[in-house]
Amino acid sequence: MKNRDVFSFPDWYPFGIEVEISNFSIYNMEKILEKDKDVFNIKRISSCKDLSVSSYSFWQNRNLFWQYKREYTNPILSLGMEITSPILYNQTEHLINMRKALEQVKRNGAEVNEKCSIHVHIGAKPFSRDFKKLYSFFLFYLLFEPVFYKMSAMGNFGHVREIASIYANPLTFQMKKAKLKEKEVKEYIFNPRMKKRNSLHFEGFDLKNDSYGSSFEVRPFNGTLDSFVVENYIAMVLSSVHYSVGDAFLKRKMLKRCKTALKERNEWSTFEDFVSSSDILVEEFMELVFPRQLDKDLFYEQYSGNYLKRVLY
What we know:
eight-stranded antiparallel β-sheet, 13% strand, alpha+beta, 11 helices
C-alpha cells in the first residue's frame, strides 16, 4: 500500500513532534549523528560545548533544523534524551524529513516504550484565537477518545493497560462528573492547578498566541519510532482539529452525545471496556475526518492490526 505524500488537513496548520528516547544519552546521540552525517546527509549547526550543562545540539536535516537534548521533564528518563522537530507543515518535503529523522534513530537501536514516545504538538492557528473552536475540538476528542487510545496502543493493550491508567489517564474518566459547559471546559484547560494526566496536555498553551511556542500536545502513550504509525497519529489528530473547527461540526449535537457517552462510560469497570468501545465509533470517525480514501485505508490498516506486516520497531 502506498504512503501519503501529504496529509488531508490544510497546509498552513503548524505541528511538530517530540521523541523521547529511553536508552540514549545526549553523548550517545552526538556520536551517532556524527557517524551518520554522510549517510543521512545531515550536518551539525551548533551545540553546547559542555553537554553536561545545557545539553543540546542542532543538526540540519535538508533545510530543517532538529534539536537533540537531554530529557528533563520525564524523571523516568533521567539518562535518556529528547529529539524536537522544527515547526512542520503539510508538505511532502516535511514528511520525508520527519521520516528520515525517525529512521536515523530507529536504525541505531533507539528504544521507546509505554512511558515515553512521540508527542504531537499543535499550534493555535487552526482555532483562530476563538475558544469556541477549541471547545469543539475538546468535545470531538472526548467522544472519540477510545479511537485515539486504540490507535496509540497499536492494537496491543495487554502490556500497557496499567501504564496507560497512570501516565495517560483517559479524559473520559477525568470528566465523568462534569457538565461539559464551555466555562467548565475552559477552567479545565487553562487552570494550571488542575492535574491533567491524560493524552491532551495543555500546559503552557496560549490560545491568543499564534506563534508555535504556545502549542499543546496530544500524547500517544505506547512508544513507537515507526514513521507509518507516527504519520497516522498526526493525520488523525490534525484532521480531527480541521473537522471540529469547520462549518459541518454540530456543537450542540456533539455536546449531547458526549454527555450520553460519559454516562455510559461511568459503568465501565476495566480499561478494556474503554478500548473495545472504539469499534462502534471507528467508521464514523473515519467518515468525518478523512475525506480521502487513502487516509481511510492507511488508518484502518493500522487500526485492524494489518500494519504489523510492515517493519515496526
